[in-house]
Amino acid sequence: MNRRSKPAPPENARADQGVPARRAALRILQGVLDRGTPFDAAANAADDLPMPQDRALARSLALHVLRWLPDLDALIDSATQRMLPDDARARHVLRIALAGWLRLGTPPHAVVSTALPLLEGGPRRLAHGVLGTLIRRPATLPPVPMLPPVFAIRWATDWGAAAAEAAAIAMADEPATDLTLKDPAQTAHWVAALEGTSLAPGHVRTTMKGSVTQWPGFAEGAWWVQDFAASLPARLLGAAPGAHVLDLCAAPGGKTLQLAAAGCKVTALDVNEARLSRIRENLDRTGLDATLIAADALRWQPDTLFDHILIDAPCSATGIFRRHPDVLHLKGATDLAPITLLQAALLRRAAAWLKPGGTLIYATCSLDPREGERIAERIIAGLPRAPFTAEELPAGLKPTPEGWLRTLPGQVEGGLDGFFIGRFRKLAD
């Protein structure tokens, strides 16, 4: 029996089937690492592949490269005296090949046969030599991936060595999927139906695979995908049924759905009309209602004051690296000055739209205190902080000494996104 007639390995890595997926993975990596395109947009490069398994493989290979990039590059550099530029096509191809071999279990012969067609001339010979050297060793990856150095240093400084190590562990693999339930009273039912666990009423964490649209409860609108940490701002706002709530910078819409499900009268504002349309689709699917407004929050002016306001402000988004490892390669050298000025402006502006006695939540999905604690520490006239208490926080989370909530990846079993959440209450007249 010749090699081509053998059954394909689980990740479908035969040359005739594996090359198109790897070519798409190459385009994805070039988009993210060379042009600074977010992964979700760059992954459109796989959409023209006719087979869904090939589309999935292309995305999987690219994500594994992004999770293990420093370690893969160290292996490549150890096997050649000719240092390849970071954006060299050959380096990208080698990254993909090694991710397939060392993370997805592609056989070594398939590693070579699916990599070389992506290269020509000298780079092809170089890649062949690098792969041959590493296969003969054989090469291995460490148990835990290396964080990009800027974040390893920054997070160890800000949150301690243990938190940085937990972040590295969280980087290794795609995390389980968190779902927020439309009806928290049905938590036990959906935990069983989705083969999951729960960190709080109205939450399910599942390791189910495949398209979420095929999972139990999706079609009937029983839940939506939302990291548990991302659900906390709405949980902690304290809005009662009937309250008029502004969800500022609302997209992708999980918090709008939470507030609507709680019986609030929700106004959801976002500058991006396309992202608002996604919120509308989820509102329609779940049977919930909210008023959607496409506008710039720095120019928009409401007709009335709100009982409560939630701001999940634009930020560097480094806290979502567990599901979106591309952010650590896109944001490493980001100048935070413009975004922190925007965050402060949004907070000051929203404070004027809050009724006396009302509460405001300011949140960012960032692990940088310059976008969270440092913004919230600024004094806003008439809007003192309303500290969180340990009793109101779920899953054993604890407030900071200042009364904020800071979530870190290793705080609960299975991990969390990194969030800052601060609560304020406007003084009554």
Termini separation: 85 Å
Count of alpha/pi helices: 16
CATH homologous superfamily title of the largest domain? Vaccinia Virus protein VP39
What does the average pLDDT come to? 93
Helical content stands at 40-55%
Number of strand segments: 11
Structural class: alpha/beta
Low-confidence stretches: 1-15
- What fold name goes in the CATH topology slot of the largest domain? Rossmann fold
Radius of gyration: 23 Å
Give the class-level CATH name of the largest domain: Alpha Beta
Question: Quick recap of the structure?
Answer:
By secondary structure, the protein is an alpha/beta fold. It is 40% helix and 13% strand. The chain starts with 14 loop residues before the first helix and ends with a strand.
Describe the structure.
This protein has 429 residues and is α/β, with parallel strands linked by helices. It folds into 2 domains: 3-136, N-utilizing Substance Protein B Homolog, Chain A; 226-425, Vaccinia Virus protein VP39 (Rossmann fold, 3-Layer(aba) Sandwich). It contains 16 helices and 11 strands. The strands form 2 sheets. The protein has a 7-stranded mixed β-sheet with strand order 7-6-5-8-9-11-10, sandwiched between helices. The protein has a 4-stranded antiparallel β-sheet with strand order 2-3-1-4. Strand 5 (244-248), helix 12 and strand 6 (265-270) form a beta-alpha-beta unit. Helix 11 (228-237) crosses helix 12 (254-261). It is globular.
